Amino acid sequence: MSLVPGGGVLFRPEIVSLPIYRQGRPPVPGGLKLSSNELPFGPLPEVVEALETGAWNRYPDATAARLREKLSASLGVPSDWLLVGAGSVALLQQFISAAAGPGDEVIYPWRSFEAYPGLVTVSGATSITVPNRPDHGHDLDAMANAVTDRTRVVIVCTPNNPTSTIVTTAEFEQLMARIPSDRLVILDEAYREFVDDPEAVRGEDHLQKYPNLVITRTFSKAYGLAGLRIGYAIGRPELLAPAQGAGIPLSVSAPAQLAAEVSLDHMDQITSRVNEVASRIGRVREAFAEIGGDLPLPYGNFVWLPTGEHTEQVVSWLEEESIVARAFPGEGIRVSIAEAEGVDPLLRIAKRVVADLPKSTPKAPLG
């Protein structure tokens, strides 16, 4: 029996043609999966113990009240300035859908988080992608120049996924000075816990100054809860309400909420784990500075190898080291900084990239 795509049912053509999100490949036996920026540790033992005692036959609290209270105390913001979602990507979808639709535009840097194009397309809006600078960081001047009457959302990602570059406070303030106050700005800080540069922007420091600013963060990375899907947004209540309305009711499970709550109760252990990974990030950053070439210094728990048309060749080098990474054909490779045993082979590959490959020309950004 032959099947007609869509079963003969009419679907939106832009959705049918939308590339499916690609998850990081599993490692070969005995290898390292460094393709998904996951924490190399499992959930805290206290989290595992708490999850064994839950009454999971009941619906979760749709407001995540207990978790918001804990986050409020931790971050120093009112609880009604917090919105909990099924991971930061779900919150991004909610904000984009709430603010932009057909005929509207969403501006974001490129290359950046690969989910952005799909989220914008699903909303019905149009993506306006702005190429990163030669150093692989955001070109915030060009992003500000791209704002038009049709712009509804501007997304800034720091550290940028996948290039691991940061936006400084000074750069962010210059951008915000040029964005109309009635356009939503989303500061995607999924990897904020790993950043140690004092010049890097901290979203919560700017909430009072910029009433159109929303910050998205996640428990997937530093907290080791990627499989439970939970994140949060910070912003003024009048910005959060439309996004809450655009979300799926009860999408944040009770186990996810409990795991996040218990993790916040044991921040000393979370901080210790983050510091362990951060020490590896620092070592890689120092090594990249010595290696030179076109390697951007990493500030998230991952690095960017700008391999251009040589990407497949470098993927084979990584596989020789039993490393599975996230490849972006024609552009580069993102490699997570996770297990200690992954650092030395990563640095060996980075040296080969600089020493053995001619300078590559990356693909043009999305239209």
Write structural notes for this entry.
There is one protein chain. This protein has 367 residues and is an alpha/beta fold. The protein has 2 domains: 122 residues, Alpha-Beta Complex (Aspartate Aminotransferase, domain 1), CATH 3.90.1150.10; 212 residues, Type I PLP-dependent aspartate aminotransferase-like (Major domain) (Aspartate Aminotransferase, domain 2), CATH 3.40.640.10. Helix content is 34%, strand content 15%. The protein is built from 12 helices and 12 strands. The strands form 3 sheets. Strands 2-8-7-6-5-3-4 form a 7-stranded mixed beta sheet, with helices on both faces. Strands 9-12-11 form a 3-stranded antiparallel beta sheet, with helices on one face. Strands 1-10 form a two-stranded parallel sheet. Helix 4 crosses helix 8. The chain is globular and about 55 Å long.
Blueprint of the fold:
Blueprint: H1 13-16, E1 32-33, H2 45-51, H3 65-75, E2 82-85, H4 88-99, E3 105-110, H5 116-123, E4 126-131, H6 140-145, E5 151-157, H7 169-176, E6 184-188, E7 213-218, E8 231-234, H8 237-245, H9 254-265, H10 267-291, E9 302-305, H11 311-320, E10 323-324, E11 326-328, E12 332-336, H12 343-356
Parallel strand pairs: 1-10, 3-4, 3-5, 5-6, 6-7
Antiparallel strand pairs: 2-8, 7-8, 9-12, 11-12
Helix pairs in contact: 2-9, 3-9, 4-5, 4-8, 10-12
Descriptive tags:
single chain; 367 residues; alpha/beta; Aspartate Aminotransferase, domain 1; Aspartate Aminotransferase, domain 2; 2 domains; 7-stranded mixed beta sheet; 3-stranded antiparallel beta sheet; 12 helices; 12 strands; globular
